Amino acid sequence: MAEYDDTVVSEHDGIQELDNQLPRWWVILFQASIVFAVIYLFWFHVLGLGKGQEKKYADMKAQAEAAQAARQSALMASMDLTTPSQLPDVISEGSEIYTANCASCHHSTGRGLIGPNLTDAYWIHGASFEDQMHILKKGVLEKGMPAWDSILSLRQRHAVASYLYSIRGSQPPDPRAPEGELVEGSDSPEYAL
Fold it and tell me: Given 32, 83, 176, 178, which is the most exposed site by the fewest CB atoms within 10 A?
């Protein structure tokens, strides 16, 4: 129990301040909080041994990225990327990506604008699926075709190439004049399947 001293230290406006001791539990709690603060400071900020919010976030982010990479690898292992997909979901995804990124040069129908017609049997850099995957990855910079490997994932490039295969021979209105070499039968979606 705290000891009280009724000695008046000061008096202002009729209020007397007594020289009372603080309760012992309060003093112990105050001293413990100072000790805790010093230990916390050294543990987390000086020595760096504890996991603060930044470290926990970085660890969780690394785990999520590893899990995503594992899912992506499993998906890629289950897909045959050497042939075009005929799954409606893949074709639909390819169509969306094509419309967002390629239609400005090749038109939404693939008939060609600045870039060549993608629906006919004439090809500048090859008509095979592997050729299209290579062009999507590396681009043709001298012709203005950008490389998409740093922008689109392998799965997305496969979806776009699969969509391009699906629009072969679609004969859109007002196509761009043929460019490149004629590859017989390449204007059919079944070419080289």
Answer: 32
